């Protein structure tokens, strides 16, 4: 164990040069988001109001979901990030591994004020996002309605965009193959079900263009490189707000939750807790969907959202009709094996 | 060194010339020694920064990488008692009841929960589903009153009766593992020791390695063919014009890699400049697929790596006196013969250095293939990053790094044998 610490420390030293340990300052906080329009929205709804009301000076950083840096920080004991926005599976594995602080929920709020999925040992649900099918209405008058249509390249010729991960893509393939939303994970848990998902993807394999960042998916839709794409619902609405005309379809949406977590050994733990409590409050969360159309986790805030905004949120009842909630336990077990198989399949 | 000096002095003293003043000779020798020492100190101090740099920039990271590729602490830290009991188990049939007792004792011992979680993650690499089985068992056992461990564990999950799970635990009792390195070449540890080939749909890395080497080789070849005339032109034009040409070659050097890569996406995409021009000229009817495939990858990588080929060529060509070519012509050789028999052999060290540099940099490319390549153009570095960042499996990441490094080293040695390392490095 001490060896490991030593090695990690040396590795950090060797790879990154000497990182200056962030000096703990009573009035500061570093918040890390995922960049782009999402972080712009977080800034307006959470970071700036929090800085104003608490007097804490908030520094921002962004990352693309990669935990290597956090792992190195925690191992070397020089933690410069305090609060992070993390995906659910990252939160769970990071929590088990000791990369995130266990939260004292009494300092955050009442558990029953939130949707059940928002509670986690090391994190509080920040918002609900969703993977949905979309196309450019300015190019296609009458585009695909759901994932099954999405596969129909006869009727709608052109490329299809997908996120370059097995996660969510395999679920979508099964939905397209006619598996009801409720049964997706039962099917995917079997070898036969996995084969079925890959076989379904095989049908349009030569027409798929893979994307790695949400912004990329819509750029390709706008440039006509893809005729239809799987993408994040919030980005679609954000693009439409700037004059684009992308379709937003809810049939077969696959939704996940991102959380706020505190990095283990954060020097500003008290401010971090204050921030999370603030960002989970119904006032702050009620404002969030104005800036980006993601669902929120505080029940009061959900009921406070204006109806014209609510129709574009993944958490609205109408939009949840045929929805799949991301099963993080499944991906924690099968993620590495399925992603490897997915990579092999993509390269063939 | 100092020893030989004193022995020489001893010989001289006996010869009588210096024997008259033995004290002076000794003082001389001492002064000489001190001088040598000072000089050695100075030279050590001069190369000190270099040594430190090499240690911190190469030796330590590489050593750490090798260590991570074989390091196997997770199961030993989490389940020491279980491993102790399993030492005497032959691996066939169900495990002894004591193994169940030991596992319960390990879970109930005061190891931090994250140690057990890491062991679960490690075991899950070998049997999918082991992570949740262990996690479920830990959650249940932590706060339970247990009388008969075997019954209790089997009540949690029948899978605990499967010897395969126990065999994996047993196998990971050693401090070092070959698992990651085996996986890096698509092998899996066999139950009876040894290794077997992974199932077909999981064979991933050897084909990726081959692809990486092929892409690097093609990029290197295109770079040589393009860079040779460019370098020659830069050298033979001379004067201000050559400086302008050199600046044009170096211009991409001063632009961020990400910017250049993204620029190619914009230029080559379906409605990009290239396709628009081609269609406007009536050369093509439909837009060509120039990006997110191998074509786009080659275009972008050649553009980015060209300076690495041009610069060594220029430096070698600058040193070739034009009189050689003139002499060859005056002796009756045609231009082709002159080029093949005189000019080309003289530039070979530059070609070798350029190729090696380009190939090595290309083999480690990550950003460009990820952005510009298609699904079947991902190189090995993609998986290094994938395991390091996405799944946080550093052992696998390090093992793939070791695989790539050994290939490059092997190549370096082979090329060195053929061309001669001294010539490549330009020491000759």
Give a description of the structure.
The complex is a heterodimer of chains A (348) and B (428). Chain A is 44% helix and 16% strand. With 348 residues, chain A is α/β, with parallel strands linked by helices. In chain A, strands 1, 2, 3, 4, 5, 6, 7, 8 and 9 form a nine-stranded mixed sheet that branches. In chain A, helix 1 (2-16) crosses helix 3 and helix 2 (36-54) packs antiparallel against helix 12. The longest helix of chain A is centred in the last third of the chain and has 20 residues, at 328-347. Chain A is globular and about 60 Å long. The two termini of chain A are 41 Å apart. The model of chain A is unreliable at 9-26 (pLDDT under 50). The longest helix of chain B is centred in the first third of the chain and has 49 residues, at 22-70. Helices cover 73% and strands 1% of the residues of chain B. Chain B has 428 residues and is mainly alpha-helical. In chain B, a hairpin with a 5-residue loop joins strand 1 (187-189) and strand 2 (195-197). Chain B has helices at residues 2-15, 22-70, 74-78, 80-86, 97-108, 113-126, 130-142, 149-156, 163-171, 179-184, 205-237, 239-250, 257-268, 273-280, 294-318, 322-330, 335-363, 367-372, 380-390, 394-419, 421-425, and strands spanning 187-189, 195-197. A two-stranded antiparallel sheet of chain B has the order 1-2. The chains are: A alpha/beta (348), B mainly alpha (428). Chains A and B meet through helix 1, helix 4, strand 6 and helix 15 of A and helix 2, helix 6, helix 7, helix 11 and helix 19 of B.
